[in-house]
Amino acid sequence: MPRLQRAVLLRAAAAALVLGATLGAEAVVGPVLAQRGAERAERDAYVCSQAARVDSVVRAGRSQHDGRPPLSRLAGPAGCGQH
């Protein structure tokens, strides 16, 4: 019986170590992923703003004499909110 208890205690200790390592890794990885997400959102916003700027310049160059835009529309990068 003492061997059984020792095996159970060793397994419980190993499980506790694995759980502790997992929680520690999550505490380290979480902020890194959040920072990468923020950097990507910033980069995507910049790309979309540049695409919108280029689109507006092109449309202004192709607009009719009274300022109305032509019927066609340029397609910008995917995910920039253009429908």
User: How do the helices and strands follow one another from N- to C-terminus?
Assistant: H
Largest sheet: none
The residue fraction in helices comes out at: over 70%
3D shape: rod-shaped
Weakly predicted, low-confidence segments: none
With helices defined by DSSP (H or I, 4 residues minimum), what is the helix count?
Answer: 1
Structural class: mainly alpha
Euclidean distance between termini CA atoms = 71 Å
Radius of gyration: 28 Å
Quickly list its features.
mainly alpha
How would you describe this structure to a colleague?
The protein has 83 residues and is mostly helical. The chain has one helix at residues 2-62. It is rod-shaped, with a radius of gyration of 28 Å.
Concise summary:
With 83 residues, the protein is mainly alpha-helical. The protein contains 1 helix and no strands.
